[in-house]
Amino acid sequence: MTIHVVLADDQELVRAGLRMVIDTTPDVEVVGEAATGAQAVRLARELRPEVVVMDIRMPGMDGIEATQMITADSPATGVVILTTYDTDSNVYAALRAGAGGFLVKDMALDDILTAVHVVAAGDALIAPGVTRRLIAQFAGRSEPAPVPELDRITAREREVLTLVGRGMSNAELAAHLHISAGTAKTHVANLLAKLDARDRVQLVILAHQSGLVAPTR
Fold it and tell me: Which ranges carry the Response regulatory domain (predicted)?
């Protein structure tokens, strides 16, 4: 299946660099480009791409607001935030808006292409440095915050959530629990549904927030 991508960045040079890499990849195709958040929302509605690669700082509507509108309008469209400004406020705002990926522009273009594939598959990917900061926020808490939604899940699903919180992929889950990859994927899908989580990023946050994953000090 071809992954259709919309590029949203007010810098034409950035869009050109991304398009150059994507055009050399057989299963990914750029179907539209936007220089503003409003244009990105319009193109996402018209073209229904699998992924939008979104800058944060753009004229008029910024990438956070555009992401929120796109994910609310089309849950099947994943958004990869690609920004120079990886501040904590931007990270949390992007995740709350429903972004499935958060990357910084100094990453290799191949890493960005990997994120497109990951998010198109319904998974999530955050730049390693950003992930460390995200987890550190929870590691610094003295007490876990209550998460009532955990009452909805089974003991097995709680075990899976703990492993997801430690960063395991579906393949790693399957190997660790001695189950098939399909069963691991089903457990994760059930967690997403029961916990009203959009993607694995939110599952990781819940696992740390609830104390299922002990903080490292």
Answer: 4-120
Give kind and range of the element (H or E) at residue 40. helix 37-47
Around 142, how many Cα atoms within 13 Å sit in the side-chain half-sphere?
A: 0
pTM, 2 dp: 0.67
Query: Is-same-fold flag (3-134; 142-209)?
Result: no
Q: How far apart are alpha carbons 165 and 134 in whole angstroms?
A: 12
Contacts of 193 (CB under 8 A, 6+ apart): none
Spatial distance between the Cα atoms of 145 and 211, rounded to a whole number of angstroms? 7
180 neighbors 187 (Cβ within 8 angstroms): no
Q: Which CATH class is domain 3-134?
A: alpha beta
Rg over alpha carbons for the chain, rounded to the nearest Å, is: 17
Tell me which CATH code domain 142-209 carries: 1.10.10.10
Domain ranges of the chain: 3-134, 142-209
- The answer to whether 213 and 166 have CB atoms below 8 angstroms apart is yes
Q: Find tokens 């920004």 and name the residue.
A: 83
